[in-house]
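Input set for joint prediction.
Command: fold jointly, output tokens.
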Amino acid sequence: MWAMIVKEFRQLRRDRRTLAMMIVLPVILLIVFGYAASFDVSKIPTVAAGPQAAALVHSLGKPFDLVAAAPDEGRAWAQTQLRNNTNGADVAVITGSGPTQVLIDGSQLFSARTALGALAAVQEKALAERASGSPVQRPQVTVLYNPELKTSYIMIPGLCGVILVFIGTIITSLGVVRERQTGTLEQLAVMPLRPRDVFLGKITPYFTVACLDLAIVLAIGVAVFGVPFRGSYAVFGLGALLFLFVTLGLGVLISSVSENQGQAIQLSVMVMLPQVLLSGLIFPLTSIAVGVRWISYILPLTYFNEISRGVMLRAEPIGPLWQPFVFLALLGLIVFTLASLRFRSFLAPAAPRRGRGPAPAGPQPAGAEAVQEAGAGAGTVPAATGPAAPAGQAGQSGAAGPAGQTGPGSAGSGR
Amino acid sequence: MTGSSPAAGPSPGDRAGRAATASPEWWGTEEASVRYGDKLALDHVTFRAVPGRISAVVGGDGAGRTTLLRCLAGAHAVSSGQVRLPVALRIGYLPAGSGIYPDLSVDENLAFRATAYQLPAAAARERSGELLERAGLASARGRLAGQLSGGMRQKLGVIAAMLHRPDLLVLDEPTTGVDPVSRADLWWLITRAAADGAAVVLATSYLDEAERATDVLALDAGRELAAGTPEEIVAAMPGTLRASDARPEGEAGQRAWRRGGRWRIWDPPVPPGQPGPAAGRAAGQPGRVLAPDLQDAVTVAILARELAAAQAGNGQPEGGDPR
Amino acid sequence: MTQPLAQCVGVSKRFGDFVAVDGVDLRLGRGEVVGLLGANGAGKTTLIRMLLGLLATSGGQVLLFGEPPSRRTRQRIGYVPQTLGLYDDLTPAENLAFSSAAFGGQPGEGGRQVMASALPESLRPYRRTVVGSLPLGVQRSVAFAQALAHQPDLLILDEPTSGVDPLARARLWETVAIAATAGTGVLVTTHYMDEAEECDRLMVMADGRVVAEGTAGQIIGGARVSVVETRSWAAAFDALEAAGLPAALVGRTLRVPGADPAEVRRALGPVEASVTGAPATLEERFFELTLSSSRAREPA
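tokens >
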């Protein structure tokens, strides 16, 4: 039995990926549960509309944090601020003729809950401090977008992103790695197929399945859980498309550095886990410690969550969403291009072939395409034909080497 | 063999059913080298495959066979030297791992191949049917390729490679590890391809199979060890071969190997100008002289190179010696 | 007479309706090298697995050193499977260390000394490289060394030389011969017909049965093939194919097993050729035996 233990340790020592996983995963979890996993909101960005509104917000104290004030504006402006999530606004205080209004963004679930709680506390305090008998001015509090503060309202949009990550990254990487594992990739390299056709042909089914799954999740979310879809399908669709490019590209990249499905899964999980935990899907971004929050801002799912929640719950138009869109577009372009280059490098020989024989009638297949692979190194030198093959080789079959070759047994021009 | 002329191969009239395309005299490489980092996988190798003929490439593991075949199939580029190949559409390739999708059925695999090589569906069906039938796979058409036995999968791989009647058929060890019955079927398929006019290149570890080919190239450490027809290679073997019942003592023991239950000893030719036979090689030594076959000639070639390297390097370990 | 090292008496194995092994008798004594030839699916691997005790028999008896297979008998066997049974991510030394520990270093029959867990001299240069990075010939040597390390009385080798160059093959067979001379019984399966000559005795299996036994010469017997020499070999090939005669291109002649020259002459029709007879090779005889065995099983 001892021998078995020793052997397993030796093998483990050499398995870099598993080692990495054993170290990286606990670190990720540590970061998350140490710094990120919190539903406590300490700061709620608040906008103030109307005369004296800014002062009122200040008087509310923590956790409300004034981020914008517009003394000449009214409810419409405030609502737009919330809808567009400008400056991260979660609460708006509107003063003017009539009672003070407070609008709370219900799509930021935990901020909303905290805000409600804080408002109630303030009111209690005010009640207690007032002289008895004088009327209390109660503000009108309205929770927008998610009046019942249902968790499903924010989870379903988030789930859409998770589905796209799951299929786009994990499933795609498995499918592509399978080709490497069965050794059929080499066959594809030799076939008269264009590398582009192979690449796109390979990922299109996963793209299609991802879209289908997304549609199913949305349909169930709306029909069964009653999650609203208030915004533009086109905006949502575009966001999903860009996000898919990122995740599909990641899937192919992962497969290009994995030799078998086991490795692909390991890497995919390591890529997916931080996204699920740190993208604002479960724990609100505002609760994540600032020192760690930068990680969230490089995760693509963070941006897609903004898009999906904004469009579905707040009918956010594309304008204010320009940041996530640009980020996803850029990232998608980079990742997808890298992925297709790496994939092609498996399919095309490192340098263009020379000296092709006569082509048959018909389309010249793009096997003649030379894909210059960065860092491939080997260029083809059209060396002059070496010492002329010895005379008398006419009619001689195949593999006779030129004269002067090494070793015994080399066929001279025997005939 | 017999009085067959060197031009024995299918005459133009034999190539029934093939579109008349002007093919060159040969496909192959000329002084080709392939470099991986600082390692030379192929070192100035010249190889020619002639349409209608079967050419065999032999050599141990790491000798460069797979690298050469990959270059011939167009899967890999050479670092220097020239390569003459048909376009990808006219090449058929069997990689070392059969290149077959295990999760597709026999028919589905062939259908994919047919489409990729632009073979019209009707022609593809007819040809697959004929080849599968003859190779004994007709009853397994619906079976998943991963469930086929090794020999059957190799047969499928070869059929898939030759489905579109390529001009150049490159097969990487189609028969290694395959039982003799399936090997007979495979050899039939290979013969069929050559009869159809393809230039067939075949890597094999069976020297008796290589002996059946028209031309042989033996590789060792990326370099050519021997080349020519089997008869030429045998004729070019230097020195003589003796048979013995036991491994000889002393220096001769390093030139001996076991075969068929007995020992063979190679006596290299005495270099001109040397005073006489080296110690241990007196005239009239034990064992009768043998006529070598291809396997002997190749073994001698490997041995000679090993001995030369050992003398030059002094203390170089010999690979593969289990003692 | 000492008892045989391994013995099978009427051994059968059934998987549902499929009969993998059908009434096989086998006897392997000290120092004997027995070769097992057969097509894939002929039952060789199943038979070996029963010998090793990995599979229970459906009928008949398997005896190793006079007793049924057990953990104790397993320790006296050295086995090299087709896949070599090595860990790709361990070095040869580590592999050997593990298997030595697993086999526990029992002294063999006749009081031989405790096994060597040190690498043989020739493998020393490779001791720091993981097996997965070694050339195939060296990997096979490592597998051999591992199987022999505990001085087994019985050595079972499944296609031990597949894919290796002739010189390396010769050296592996030398190891086998040395072990046999020391008294180890060796059962080996192979597809290389010239290795059949290395064996004292051959057993040819087809469809789960032993269809021939003896030396190569005995098995070939008087079998003959027809040899066709012609300029237009492709036409000849087509003609023979049309007549249902399997022909193989060998160099520049066609060899047709299982058919006499007259029959071949008739099948060739107008094709100009000379047809003679010749003795069959072991491979051709084997092919014939396997074919007739499967034909005998086909419904009429």
